[in-house]
Structures are given as structure tokens and as C-alpha cells.
């Protein structure tokens, strides 16, 4: 089956929430996941990151990027070293999902040297449909299901679903 970028983004965001990620980091993970799979990178990187919640790269990568973005405030361009650990490909996907231009200028074993240009929009372009990640979709769907309200009379009384009278 094939998926659109928007479908992957929404599913990965919900999966991260279901696995215990705060909303902001889940949203950033969703964007990076769509970029990651759209570039043909391994879905295993995403699944490993989800398994490590409530810690791990889904929380750490946005902090590293934010640290650099804050230091770049008011500057045209900034060069920085960032720790990527064992998640280089995932980190690269996070950088590609930024709204500004981010370039990896050097790759070291567990770090990147990057250049950020906050005032320059990221190069865009449509991504192809995403295929070949059915197992990852299945696992993310199971995690996303943790965010659903259980079906019960109490939940319907509290306003979930159509309520107690569904007259459609």
C-alpha cells in the first residue's frame, strides 16, 4: 500500500503521543517521520525511537535543534556541532523537516557539524507517495490507538462519540 506525506505525519504524531511523547515533540516527530520515510530511509529507525519513549531521540533531537536555533536568533547563519548519537539518519530527517535551511557540513561518528540559515526557507518540493513501510504503519497504528477514548456508556455520557442517542 502507499501513503501520502500527510497520512504518515498524522499517524506518526499520534503514535508518538500513544507511546508517551509530549504533544510538541510528537508533532515534530510526525514531520520528521514523514520526511524520513519519504526519503526512503529505514522505518526501523522510527520504530526504535518510539520504543524508547518516554525518553530517547524523540525528546532529545528537538532539544538539540532548539539549542542551535536559539543561538542563531538574529543571525543570518550559524554553524554548530550537534550530538546525534546512534540516530544520524533520524536526526537528518528532523533537520530536513525544519522550515528553514539546514545543511550538514560534516559528519563525525556521533555528531554533525551543521549550518542553519533561519531567514532562508527550506528547499521544498513534493515527496513521492510513501511505500514499503506496512509493518511500521501497523505498529504505529497500534500505538496511535492508545490515544482513543475507550467505548463505554460513561465515555458517551462525557461527550465522546455521538452520545447516547445516535439518530443519523
Kindly summarize this structure in a few lines.
With 168 residues, this protein is α+β, with helices and mostly antiparallel strands.
Structure notes:
The chain is of the alpha+beta class. The protein has one domain (2-157). Helices cover 47% and strands 18% of the residues. The strands form two sheets. The chain has a three-stranded antiparallel β-sheet with strand order 2-4-3, with helices on one face. Helix 1 crosses helix 6 and helix 4 (57-71) packs across helix 5. The mean pLDDT is 88.
Provide keyphrases for this structure.
about 170 residues; alpha+beta; three-stranded antiparallel sheet; two-stranded antiparallel sheet; 7 helices; elongated
Q: Tell me which oligomeric state these chains represent.
A: single chain
Q: List low-pLDDT spans.
A: none
| Backbone CA Rg | 18 Å
E-strand count = 5
Helix- and strand-based class?
alpha+beta
Average pLDDT for all residues? 88
Helices, by number, come to 7
Total domain modules: 1
Measure the end-to-end span: 32 Å
Strands in their spatial order, largest beta sheet: 2-4-3
Order of helices and strands: EHHHHEHEEEHH
Helix content range? 40-55%
Sketch the major β-sheet.
Answer: 3 strands, antiparallel
Topology diagram in text:
Elements: E1 2-3, H1 5-18, H2 23-38, H3 43-51, H4 57-71, E2 78-83, H5 88-96, E3 100-108, E4 111-121, E5 130-131, H6 134-144, H7 153-157
Antiparallel strand pairs: 1-5, 2-4, 3-4
Helix pairs in contact: 1-2, 1-6, 2-5, 4-5
Amino acid at each position: 500500500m502507499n501513503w501520502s506525506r500527510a497520512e504518515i505525519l498524522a499517524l506518526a504524531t499520534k503514535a508518538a503521543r500513544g507511546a508517551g511523547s509530549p504533544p510538541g515533540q510528537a508533532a515534530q516527530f510526525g514531520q520528521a517521520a514523514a520526511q524520513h520515510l519519504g526519503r526512503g530511509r529505514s522505518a526501523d529507525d522510527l520504530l526504535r525511537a518510539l520504543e524508547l519513549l518516554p525518553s530517547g531521540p524523540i525528546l532529545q533531537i528537538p532539544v538539540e535543534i532548539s539549542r542551535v536555533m536559539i543561538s542563531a536568533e538574529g543571525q543570518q547563519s550559524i554553524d554548530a556541532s550537534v550530538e546525534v548519537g546512534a540516530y544520524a539518519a533520524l536526526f537528518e530527517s528532523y533537520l530536513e523537516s525544519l522550515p528553514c535551511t539546514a545543511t550538514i557540513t560534516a559528519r563525525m561518528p556521533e555528531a554533525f557539524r551543521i549550518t542553519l540559515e533561519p531567514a532562508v526557507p527550506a528547499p521544498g518540493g513534493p515527496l513521492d507517495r510513501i511505500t514499503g513501510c506496512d509493518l511500521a504503519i501497523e505498529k504505529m497504528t497500534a500505538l496511535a490507538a492508545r490515544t482513543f477514548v475507550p467505548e463505554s456508556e460513561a465515555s458517551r455520557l462525557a461527550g465522546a462519540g455521538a452520545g447516547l442517542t445516535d439518530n443519523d
